[in-house]
Amino acid sequence: MERALASAAIAILYQDSALAILYAENLLPYFQKLFIAGGDDVSLFGEVHGKSLIEMKQRVLETGAASNAEIDVTIDGEGRIFELKVQRTGEHGNYGLLSIMSEITETRHREKVLKSLLRELSHRSKNLLAIIQGIATQTARNTISLDVFLVKFRGRLQSLSNSQDLVTDSSWRGAFLFELAEKQFAPYWPETAGSVPISGIDAHLTPNAAVHLGLALHELVVNSASYGAIAGGATSVTVNCRQAKIAGRKAIELVWVETLPDSADVHEFSENSFGRTVLERVVPSSVNGKAELTLAPGRVEYHLTVPETEFEILKRA
Known about the structure:
Beta-Lactamase, elongated
């Protein structure tokens, strides 16, 4: 029996009808020091837990209905949680109580972590749904036909999905900027053009920054593939990430530079006004940064500054 108790990591206590502890087996050293044959729950578990256990055990003796209780103690500076399963034994006039005691510290810790993760998942899901709702609403406002709406909306959802995949694969820790850019460029960048033109600091972005920078890059890439350099057969697009400052604090600046095929052409983003809203308002606001879109003859420039709360500089390409 002793071996069985030890291998199962449980202890047993037997108490008489007066709730005196007559027998105990396989107690942890901490409780062994406190155990006194004939003592009660107060002497073993302390006054607070002891009194509540006595009340519960008296009800078990009276009703015969088994009951459970949890106690938390500090052992060697570490908080630990134990569960007692109590049931009545013996016959009328000679009742006793058998308590099976086991440690559930890890179980409760896992439950706490799981609840925290579920709350975080719920929070992120709500944020994601809000982003999708905003994309749908704004896309609809800036399109004149269902077909055009579906094309633009699907493209933006795919962009969001690509960014979200990177965040999920990292266990919600975020995503690297270069990998994020490659995901957004992939459907539009010509295979013959070589690698995606991104250089500088490969910052690790927070989940929030990854989702919104993904949206910004998507709008820039799609706009170029529809009306700009990529559409004209040229690949004169560069993306650079460099260190910067914002309000005196460390930051990174993402710089998009695109040279248009016609040096006299001035791109007004006229066919993509929601894209401009995303670049100039939605994204910088969502990452607590600032942005500037410059449309000069033959050139499109976009500067997005992201504060240090939304990234970690892990490596320089």
